Automatic annotation (TrEMBL):
Classification of source organism: Bacteria, Bacillati, Bacillota, Bacilli, Bacillales
InterPro entries linked to this entry: Ester_Hydrolysis_Enzymes, SGNH_hydro, SGNH_hydro_sf
Organism: Fictibacillus barbaricus
Name of the protein in question: Spore gernimation protein
A Pfam entry, by short name: Lipase_GDSL_2
SUPFAM superfamilies attached to this UniProt entry: SGNH hydrolase
Segments forming domain SGNH hydrolase-type esterase: 14-204
Amino acid sequence: MSEFQTSYDWLLTAIGDSLTVGVGAPVFGKGYVGRYVGFTQDIFNNQIIVNNYAVTGTTSEEILYSLKDKQVRKSIKKSKIILITAGGNDLIQAAFKFMLTSKEEPIYQALDQCKKNLAKIFKVIFKIKKNTKDSFIIRICTLYNPYFRWSKANKWVNLFNEHIKSYERMPNVKVADLYDVFKGREKELVCFDTIHPNKRGYQVIAVSLFELGFKEIE
């Protein structure tokens, strides 16, 4: 991760799970973060420095906990762009419990906890940014459903996504709807592990985020 450069550079902070890490992308390829940065640098002609604090397998609770780190908070404070993926591992862990018990209670417990964690994540970010004069944007993704043939999974993913979409009411926040762009294209966009995006999938995510625009910072 690079330290902050000249005043002419933009800083981008990414937090989240394996999607933001780029799991599933080719070994020497880029996940969605690198692709998004490439698109953005091209139109603004600004060097973008990336601090990616995402960790594979993290839940929304663990992402929230990561915001206690001084380096992460410093990066967020100075960032022009903040990217977030969260909730996928909360749902996956709950789905495994369902498979063992055939009870949906763990799904709704995970949803409730994820709601609380996301609310706190945004609260912390806005508190960090409160006294900054520079404009900034926050972009978060909905969940896509790699288990599209499983009707219950579609229902659960949509419950999580309804909540994620609600944050678009907040200033500076826009949501990339991955569920819609992946729907019907799962075989094309998900890699051999049946969970993570492949090269094409990460390109689709980057484009979806890029198409949300930059109105707040133009």
